[in-house]
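User: TetR/AcrR family transcriptional regulator. Structure?
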Amino acid sequence: MIEDQPPARPAQIRRPRQKRSQERFEAILDAAARVLKDREPGDVSIYTLAEEAEMSPASIYHFFPDAQHVFAALAERYFGIFSDGMNPVSDTPFATWQSLVDFRYEASRCFYNANVAARKIIFGAGSNWTIRARDLELDRELALSAIAQIRQCFVLPEIPGLVDRVTETIVLNDSLWALYNHRYGYLPDHEEEYVRRARFAHMRTYLPEFLVQREIEESDAASEVVA
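Assistant: Predicted structure:
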């Protein structure tokens, strides 16, 4: 009688700890980004990446079981860059929450339009479940960041389930961007107004149309103290 064997562990990325190995790891991601400027993810193999990175295939297999895992690691890099770039800023004046939302999404669109590889692996055919799952995690992080920035600039009332609602707006937006990326290969200006209307239509289901600016509230409070 053959005993049941434990299930095989899924192939994973081997993330380096030593500096030299980390540099090789990052060089592989750099090579993937360059290759994806001219090729689709499905046309890229470990051997393609090895040639571009000027490494042996074995050197890449040391870290990655296949090209899809290279793309997942590259997506993680983009998520980190993008998340850092969306941190709340205190020196940008916003008269309305709508102008703040426009600012954040335009910065996001510029980021993706400037990065062909990012569009292909996050919005295009190169996206797999690993990348998509991490993208959804990032959407929630971005929702928290957006809410923090709204609270920084405006007086925001307590709204039940606000993080979930803002996350839904981000997912809705990204779905439309994925569609336009499929149609045009980038996120064009002439379609952005439709995405903008969709964002605001959804956000108006949970946000009031007008929010008091934080500086105005603080100024009123100071006036009352002086009086």
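Residues 129-153 form the longest helix (25 residues). The domain at 19-65 is CATH 1.10.10.60 (Arc Repressor Mutant, subunit A).
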